[in-house]
Write a structure and sequence with these properties.
Elements lengths: L1 E2 L2 E3 L1 H9 L4 E7 L5 H12 L4 E4 L1 H7 L7 E5 L5 E2 H11 L4 E6 L4 H13 L4 E5 L8 H6 L9 E4 L2 H10 L3 E5 L16 E6 L7 H4 L4 E3 L12 H16 L2
Length: about 240
């Protein structure tokens, strides 16, 4: 069955997966067994859909009907193909600007980042298939509707997207407090990609190692880092400042 942006029932969710319906997350009942349920689990893992196991009471709140131990949240916005988006941007924009998010998991941070990205002229946002905040109602609301105005692409591995952009002449800069140089020393008047890390761990070490530049923001207080959405805004507006002076 389907209700607004929720699908429930094992076969209904399977059909949605097989038809390519964009699904944010699937909630599965803890401890449930059976052939159909096992098949659904296999479909979810094969399609790399975010999922979690929750108590029956949680499922009852999510769906008012016979959910059979499975409830899925559908994305209101379909994620786009990364290579198609990247090619289109680089073919039409003199100074492409991409934003990559390395497992930003907070929905409101995700929405705030989308809003800032749209306001600063980012041409596309790229996120990993797993470990990223869902593009759900809260994210869209926090983005003030900006999520409808900017392409958002998913990739299996963020490093593959970085290599692709670098091979296309895009300079990739990571935001990290571990950098030696501040953001203001970099030149953004060239094809650019900015990558922001997760709220807790930042950019993964293996990803940091393949970036063209690392940059940090000056911090005058006792706190060692900014909220990721705030830091993202500062980085993006430095790009805007340089490109408009």
């Amino acid at each position: 069955m389907k209700s607004d942006h929720t699908i429930y029932g094992i076969r209904a969710i399977q059909e949605a997966i097989h038809s390519g319906t964009p699904i944010n997350k699937v909630y599965l009942q803890k401890g449930l067994q059976g052939d159909l349920f096992t098949q659904l689990e296999e479909d979810i893992r094969r399609s790399k859909i975010s999922h979690s196991y929750v108590p029956l009471q949680k499922l009852d709140k999510l769906a008012h009907g016979n959910h059979q131990g499975a409830v899925a949240k559908i994305s209101q916005i379909a994620f786009q193909d990364f290579e198609s988006v990247a090619e289109a941007v680089m073919a039409t924009e003199k100074l492409p600007l991409f934003l990559l998010l390395d497992q930003v998991t907070d929905v409101r941070n995700f929405g705030a980042i989308i809003r800032t990205a749209e306001c600063t002229g980012v041409h596309a946002i790229i996120v990993p298939t797993s470990g990223s905040a869902p593009l759900n109602e809260n994210a869209i609301k926090t983005s003030a509707g900006a999520a409808f105005n900017i392409p958002i692409a998913k990739v299996d591995h963020l490093k593959d997207a970085i290599f692709y952009l670098q091979s296309s002449g895009v300079v990739v800069t990571g935001a990290t407090e571990k950098a030696e140089h501040e953001i203001y020393s970099l030149d953004f008047n060239q094809p650019t990609a900015i990558i922001m890390g997760s709220e807790e761990k930042g950019i993964s070490p293996s990803t940091l190692n393949i970036l063209d530049h690392r940059a940090k923001l000056p911090l005058m207080g006792k706190i060692g880092s900014l909220n990721v959405s705030v830091a993202c805004g500062v980085f993006l507006y430095e790009v805007v400042r340089q490109r408009n002076t």
